[in-house]
Amino acid sequence: MQFFLNLGPIFRALMRQRFSAILVVVQIAITMAIITNGLAITWERFLHIERHTGIDEHNSFFLTSSGFTQGFNPRATIENDLSLIRATNGVIDAVQTNSFPLSDSGNWYELQTTTDKDAALIPAASYKFDEHGINTFGLTLVAGENFSAQDTLWLDEADSQWPSHVLISQATASALFGEAQWQTAVGKTLFVNQSTPLIIKGIVKRLHAPWVDWPHVEKTIISPARVTHNSARYVIRTQPGRLNDLMQSLSASLAKENTQRVIRKVKSIQQAKDEIYAADIATVSILLVVIVVLAFVTAMGVAGLASFNIDKRRQQIGIRRALGASKGQILQYFMLENALLCAIGAVLGVLLTFMLNIFLVDRYSLTPLPLLYVPIGVLILFFISQLAVIKPAVRAMSVSPAMATRSL
Amino acid sequence: MFKYYVQLALSSIMRSKVHSLLTMLTIALGIGACTITLTLVSSMSANPISHKSEQLFRVQLDNWDPNQAAISPDLPPEFVTWTDANNIVNAKQAKRQSASAITWGMVNPTEQGLTPFLALMRVTSKDFFPMFDVPFIYGAGWDESAEQNNDYVVVLSKETNQRVFNGVNSVGKTLTMLGATFTVVGVLDDWHMSPKFYDMSYGAFSAPEDIYLPLGLKAVFELPHGGITSCWKPIESQRYDAFLHSECINFQLWVELEDGEQKAQFNQYLTNYVTQQKTLGRFPRPLNNRLLDVTQWLEYKQVVKQDIQVMFWLSVMFLLVCLINAASLLSAKLHTKHSEIGLRRALGANFSQIILQYSVEIVFIGLCGGILGVLLAIFGLQGVASLYAGYGQLIELDLTVVTSVIALAVVGTIIAGLIPVYSACRPAPAMQIKQ
């Protein structure tokens, strides 16, 4: 009860210096609006970047071998290269593939469960690699089985033939056969281009499409094919800790092995990921810096106002102490004064937070702010400003009762 | 009198060094944040060819699926087919016209004793160079007859010329690439349009290509389709020319038109062209031609990332917080000066003299804060540039941004600082002296 009785005099004292009190309240409100919206954007981006693509991102790299002479034999080169890479110490497995997650290039097909023209079309990104792919990418087979060596077709660049069996991701299976029945997809037939039938041999838990912002990023289809092309892309998975040295030594030994081609674009999956998300990583970093600096500036403002008030009221504090107020009560007074400012700021702040969010959502198609962020924002501001007021309040606490007798 | 005010301001600032520095720093942080985001926005929304932005037009035709628009709800595709690219360029109905696409191939400079390398190439029309004001150090683009006869001619970028010919004048020399012998006709000077509005298929800030060659050579050498290829109809066969004759889009078509009259004429030509193609069974959708000039095109492509615009608004609010903070710091300082103000007023200083006197101090603080803020921004931008790896080198602080933010700092500080001065002048001087 005592606690609430204090609020009256505190409020009246604040009203005597409306200008600085209003400044602090507005500052707290705007800070809250920025921090709350900034944190929401940051967290959303962070989750987007950290989304698992389904492959072993930390221990894999890729390179491209491009043949340039008239007599260059793509198929023999691919076979030689892969046996050399797979036999290298430290390599877990390697595969030739048309594309991989985070590569940002590839193609997609529309899948159906019937050849009916009106049936729903399910878009799925297409990967083409042989039975080594599951092990190279570190995919988890959740139903059915992997390709066998006999399933794999060698295709010419211009050859649009499809192998008879395919693997699909769980998301593709769910989209084709229903969320609950995805497991039943094994052994069933799906159609590509409304005509070509393909038998589903297995389902992998997760394998993302090559384009990170594609709306259907989880839907993929893998066909056991090796496409011969003057340029071939290999993905290589190494034992932990061997990535960097193998990136160098393997590209050197491949270049030496066959001089009718050049080895280029040697990069780790992690590098590819950092490049593709560069803008998002920049957004997250800049916003975090802004949030921290802003919190600091506002804390300084709050501390500044408090210490200014305390300096002005040294005599008054002395009188209160002389009249029997304990040190704790003085401390409580200033903490409470700050809490009151903060509460008024928070009311205004919630309003501003929503206004800012509506503006951003409306103008830049951001996702609306999850409500949970509002109490988080209030708590953060409350914490910052109480923290900022501790030092000046402790100084006020140590004003001696003798101050009452002195004039300023 | 003014000199006296300056002396007063300096001595007041020196008396409370920490306080003044804190105020400047607060303003500097806000200004720094705003400068950084403003620079990002302005360097990304830059129009690299502003002097002829109203004369260059992107041509879009709607050859798409009758049941589904290329870009919802009803926009035509952004690229054109090989057929339309060639027909429109050869019709020569505009002042200049160019169709181009990215491709790649092996360069094998064995005569120069270099290892072969894969080069990014652009197949394009001869008008490409004069249209986009492409600068040459040596030679020029190819001529009409080379274009018509599909001569094996190339234009090299400055880097490629450096790499292959050590930077010497290579015009007239030969270069082995794509398994044939080409003659160099021109070497470009440094040229990096940013945003790369004429072809943003590899990103608005991607690097220009290494080598340029006539459009017709794409079919001769069956060069790969770089950039974005999109088809709404299955291609009839797997042969290379089946792609060229298909409805697949891949080519960037631009025209240069000098005035409204030429634009109207060209529009009429496009309408006639599409109508004529419709009689051949193409263009099943309703007439939907689009001519966007460079500014409209950049706006349509949303080159400035939304994130950066969001950050810009957040930084404006951040500046507001900093100014409010500066205002409360200044007002706290002024409270210690109430008796001084009272004394001055009692001695005959009027309201405007008091305001002027404090304005000098406030403007000084604001100016220092602004300059400090720009310095902070210079450091900050280096950090930001390293975050945006792809186009970091393109972020530059420009003078307009710098002068406008410093002006903003001064104006903001005056508003923030004079409100407390105004309230300090209200009570009767006698009351203030007594305090």
Automatic annotation (TrEMBL), chain A:
<dbReference type="GO" id="GO:0005886">
    <property type="term" value="C:plasma membrane"/>
</dbReference>
<keyword id="KW-1133">Transmembrane helix</keyword>
<dbReference type="GO" id="GO:0022857">
    <property type="term" value="F:transmembrane transporter activity"/>
</dbReference>
<dbReference type="Pfam" id="PF02687">
    <property type="entry name" value="FtsX"/>
</dbReference>
<keyword id="KW-0812">Transmembrane</keyword>
<protein>
    <recommendedName>
        <fullName>ABC3 transporter permease C-terminal domain-containing protein</fullName>
    </recommendedName>
</protein>
<keyword id="KW-0472">Membrane</keyword>
<dbReference type="InterPro" id="IPR003838">
    <property type="entry name" value="ABC3_permease_C"/>
</dbReference>
<feature type="transmembrane region" description="Helical">
    <location>
        <begin position="331"/>
        <end position="360"/>
    </location>
</feature>
<comment type="similarity">
    <text>Belongs to the ABC-4 integral membrane protein family.</text>
</comment>
<dbReference type="InterPro" id="IPR050250">
    <property type="entry name" value="Macrolide_Exporter_MacB"/>
</dbReference>
<keyword id="KW-1003">Cell membrane</keyword>
<feature type="transmembrane region" description="Helical">
    <location>
        <begin position="286"/>
        <end position="310"/>
    </location>
</feature>
<feature type="domain" description="ABC3 transporter permease C-terminal">
    <location>
        <begin position="289"/>
        <end position="392"/>
    </location>
</feature>
<feature type="transmembrane region" description="Helical">
    <location>
        <begin position="372"/>
        <end position="390"/>
    </location>
</feature>
<feature type="transmembrane region" description="Helical">
    <location>
        <begin position="21"/>
        <end position="43"/>
    </location>
</feature>
Automatic annotation (TrEMBL), chain B:
<dbReference type="GO" id="GO:0022857">
    <property type="term" value="F:transmembrane transporter activity"/>
</dbReference>
<feature type="domain" description="MacB-like periplasmic core">
    <location>
        <begin position="20"/>
        <end position="272"/>
    </location>
</feature>
<keyword id="KW-1003">Cell membrane</keyword>
<dbReference type="GO" id="GO:0005886">
    <property type="term" value="C:plasma membrane"/>
</dbReference>
<feature type="transmembrane region" description="Helical">
    <location>
        <begin position="310"/>
        <end position="334"/>
    </location>
</feature>
<feature type="domain" description="ABC3 transporter permease C-terminal">
    <location>
        <begin position="314"/>
        <end position="425"/>
    </location>
</feature>
<keyword id="KW-0067">ATP-binding</keyword>
<keyword id="KW-0472">Membrane</keyword>
<keyword id="KW-0812">Transmembrane</keyword>
<feature type="transmembrane region" description="Helical">
    <location>
        <begin position="355"/>
        <end position="381"/>
    </location>
</feature>
<dbReference type="InterPro" id="IPR025857">
    <property type="entry name" value="MacB_PCD"/>
</dbReference>
<dbReference type="InterPro" id="IPR050250">
    <property type="entry name" value="Macrolide_Exporter_MacB"/>
</dbReference>
<protein>
    <submittedName>
        <fullName>ABC transporter ATP-binding protein</fullName>
    </submittedName>
</protein>
<feature type="transmembrane region" description="Helical">
    <location>
        <begin position="21"/>
        <end position="41"/>
    </location>
</feature>
<keyword id="KW-1133">Transmembrane helix</keyword>
<keyword id="KW-0547">Nucleotide-binding</keyword>
<dbReference type="Pfam" id="PF12704">
    <property type="entry name" value="MacB_PCD"/>
</dbReference>
<dbReference type="InterPro" id="IPR003838">
    <property type="entry name" value="ABC3_permease_C"/>
</dbReference>
<dbReference type="GO" id="GO:0005524">
    <property type="term" value="F:ATP binding"/>
</dbReference>
<feature type="transmembrane region" description="Helical">
    <location>
        <begin position="401"/>
        <end position="425"/>
    </location>
</feature>
<dbReference type="Pfam" id="PF02687">
    <property type="entry name" value="FtsX"/>
</dbReference>
